[in-house]
Write a structure and sequence with these properties.
The protein is an all-alpha fold. The chain has two domains: 105 residues, Orthogonal Bundle (Endonuclease Iii, domain 2); 101 residues, Endonuclease III, domain 1, CATH 1.10.340.30. 59% of the residues lie in helices and 0% in strands. The longest helix is centred in the N-terminal third of the chain and has 28 residues.
């Protein structure tokens, strides 16, 4: 048992060192990485991240312009009929459920939180349509608090890199990363993974390992040829 515990501890320390090196290289590669959803108020990021499910950020950024022109405040969206919201957000896909969640979320912000987005993780999770990924994004980008956003890019890349071992469930990936990523680095690290996942370590084509700044560190280029 002692040897097993020792091995676990060594593995975690090794992953911490690997994580720090990856973080530094990605900082050099993507110094200005940030959220690609456009927003200037916290509640707008809540709306956009709900619309971004199974939709590109670029499309969301276009659609919300019409949404906010018609409903420029939390109160306006809270008062709007979900059917009217759905007419605008339909191009993002899943329009019915997204409109329903946005309507319910804005009502709760208006009625329970005095028109403000709460800066507490559990309170964010209590909002309709807000899961761990969305709550972490708000915590990190809006409130500057430790956050790890396990979107599809993050999950794919940290598995390929060997920071996690064959874990695909978002919450389990998040918990594994909390152990090895410095809290102050988590939010920006995840944004850089999105950039790297779109440009280099792609999902729908073979990754461009020949131009990857992490190729000599990555498990995919080492022992782990299956990922």
């Amino acid at each position: 048992m002692g040897k097993t515990n020792g091995k676990v501890q060594v593995d975690e320390m090794t992953k911490k060192k690997l994580a720090l090196e990856i973080i530094e290289r990605l900082k050099n590669e993507y110094p200005d990485a940030e959220c690609t959803l456009d927003y200037n108020e916290a509640w707008k990021l809540l709306v956009s991240v709900r619309l971004a499910a199974q939709c590109t950020d670029a499309r969301v950024n276009v659609v919300v312009q019409d949404l906010y022109e018609k409903y420029p405040s939390i109160e306006d969206l809270a008062d709007a009929a979900p059917e009217e919201i759905e007419k605008i957000v339909k191009p993002c896909g899943l329009g019915h459920s997204k409109a329903r969640d946005i309507s319910a979320c804005m009502k709760l912000l208006r009625d329970k939180y005095d028109g403000k987005v709460p800066d507490d993780f559990d309170a964010l999770l209590s909002l309709p349509g807000v899961g761990r990924k969305s709550a972490n994004l708000i915590m990190g980008d809006v409130f500057g608090k430790p956050a790890i956003v396990t979107d599809t890019h993050c999950i794919r890349l940290v598995n390929r890199m060997g920071l996690v071992d064959g874990i695909k469930e978002p919450k389990k990936v998040e918990m594994a990363l909390w152990k090895i990523i410095p809290p102050e680095e988590g939010s920006s690290f995840c944004h850089r993974l999105v950039n790297h996942g779109r440009d280099v370590c792609t999902a729908r084509t073979n990754p461009y390992c020949e131009k990857c700044c992490l190729s000599d560190l990555c498990a995919k280029n080492g022992l782990d040829k299956k990922k």
